[in-house]
């Protein structure tokens, strides 16, 4: 299969730098590596010697995406023109017959981001420039503060403020709960996928509902009203419980309350909205514009968190962001450490351009992960700033990556005290 046409002699820069023959995809390889945690990376190479990278990491289900890419996607890419980003997206989405779902959309995202990266390198431009240029100097980010109890969590918030963060997410342990969501193991950065088989945690809603407002009362008392505060419920409440929490938190003026109830049935958010003006954020487990259509159209949320990596890449998230803008819903991309620096780089370029930007989640990657994925974005004055490297500005040291083979790791599960399964 070949899509090679002759465009020799065309004078403009694009054609001067890359004829369609140079843009032909000659290789697509999947790199699975565990520099502290598992990452899946797609590398696409062109005949002209340019390569692009896309993140394909789906936490706890990494090898499903790796196999989807290796077995079902890569053979379809060989011989295609890397410049036909939209057509390749449509080919992988419509052409596969089986649409949507986290595995498919993560695989499509990896291809899409790698192609945008190639386009940037060919054009000699950073990705934000290709999207339409800068809308802002840097992307406001929020850090993760957590503690075993309220006082430890509030101290952690203080440490991030000292480091220059303007927005901090706060989570704390709940008395009587053995492992509340978001709390790290003794001094280590928070990483939920810690064991080969899922850790079993226990959940108690009444205790949590009692603790969370006290946490924010204390954080506001300790740190004042300047810092933006966020909180993640991680899908644990029923709609009416979520409504109560959202109302109880109103005095502390949260930037957002995240995943207050599972969003499978989007109408559930109507109940929360009827009772509270606390801004709501949803979407890290969504993978398509269709997953959030009702929430956005009915103005049931304020921030959409679907990411570049799990939401079909730049091409699809751009459609989602434009749709959300019609309803004044802003972006707030998921940015936990299980999204690789490749995703972070792409997300930051998007954040730098997208008019309806809200905030970007930012958990620090380990030093080792940063060495495996050298990048040019950096934190300054509460914001992340992208560089002007052509493409998304993130590369991979394949030799170093090869030294850290895949380790099976799964996310925890939650059960109620009587043993019944609950949402983690
Ligand atoms: C967040 C998320 C994470 C997820 C994790 C799952 O808001 O950062 O909820 O903590 O649980 O990314 O892979
Ligand atoms: Mg979350």
UniProtKB/TrEMBL annotation:
GO molecular function, a single term: magnesium ion binding
Pfam family name, one: MR_MLE_C
Mandelate racemase/muconate lactonizing enzyme C-terminal domain ranges (all copies): 150-279
GO biological process per UniProt: amino acid catabolic process; carbohydrate catabolic process
Annotated Gene3D superfamilies: Enolase-like C-terminal domain (3.20.20.120), Enolase-like, N-terminal domain (3.30.390.10)
Ranges for region Disordered: 1-20
InterPro entries, sorted: D-mannonate_dehydratase-like, DgoD-like, Enolase-like_C_sf, Enolase-like_N, Enolase_C-like, Mandel_Rmase/mucon_lact_enz_CS, Mandelate_racemase_C, Mandelate_racemase_N_dom
Alphabetical list of NCBIfam families matching this protein: ManoateDhtManD, PRK15072.1
Protein name, as recorded: Bifunctional D-altronate/D-mannonate dehydratase
Organism: Pseudoxanthomonas dokdonensis
């Amino acid at each position: 299969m070949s899509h090679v046409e002759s465009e020799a002699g065309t004078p403009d820069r694009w054609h001067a730098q890359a004829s369609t023959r140079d843009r032909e995809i000659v290789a697509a390889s999947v790199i699975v590596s565990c520099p502290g945690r598992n990452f899946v990376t797609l590398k696409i190479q062109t005949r002209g010697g340019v390569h692009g990278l896309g993140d394909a990491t789906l936490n706890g289900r990494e090898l499903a995406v790796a196999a989807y890419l290796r077995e079902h996607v890569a053979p379809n890419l060989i011989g295609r023109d890397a410049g036909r980003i939209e057509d390749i997206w449509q080919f992988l989405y419509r052409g596969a017959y089986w649409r949507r779902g986290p595995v498919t959309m993560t695989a499509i995202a990896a291809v899409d981001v790698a192609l945008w990266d190639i386009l940037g390198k060919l054009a000699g431009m950073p990705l934000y420039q290709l999207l339409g240029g800068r809308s802002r100097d840097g992307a406001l980010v929020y850090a993760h503060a957590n503690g075993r109890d309220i006082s430890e969590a509030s101290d952690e918030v203080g440490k991030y403020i000292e480091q220059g963060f303007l927005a901090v997410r706060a989570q704390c342990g709940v008395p009587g709960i053995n492992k509340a969501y978001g709390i790290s193991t003794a001094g280590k950065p928070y990483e939920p996928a810690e064991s080969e088989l899922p850790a079993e945690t226990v959940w108690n809603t009444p205790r949590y509902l009692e603790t969370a407002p006290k946490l924010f009362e204390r954080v506001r008392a300790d740190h004042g009203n300047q810092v933006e505060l966020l909180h993640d419920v991680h899908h644990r409440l029923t709609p009416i419980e979520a409504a109560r929490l959202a109302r109880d938190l109103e005095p502390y003026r949260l930037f957002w309350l995240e995943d207050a109830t599972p969003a499978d049935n989007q109408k559930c958010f109507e109940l929360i909205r009827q009772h509270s003006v606390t801004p709501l954020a949803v979407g890290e487990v969504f993978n398509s514009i269709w997953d959030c259509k009702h929430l956005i159209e009915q103005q049931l949320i304020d921030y959409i968190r679907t990411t570049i990596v799990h939401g079909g890449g730049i091409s699809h998230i751009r459609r989602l962001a434009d749709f959300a803008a019609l309803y004044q819903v802003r972006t707030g991309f998921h940015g936990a450490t299980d999204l690789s620096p490749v995703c972070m780089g792409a997300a930051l370029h998007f954040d730098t351009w997208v008019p309806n930007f809200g905030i970007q989640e930012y958990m620090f990657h380990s030093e080792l992960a940063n060495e495996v994925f050298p990048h040019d974005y950096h934190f300054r004055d509460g914001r992340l700033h992208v560089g002007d490297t052509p493409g998304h500005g993130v590369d991979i040291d394949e030799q170093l990556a090869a030294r850290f083979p895949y380790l099976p790791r799964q996310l925890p599960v939650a059960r109620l005290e009587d043993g019944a399964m609950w949402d983690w």
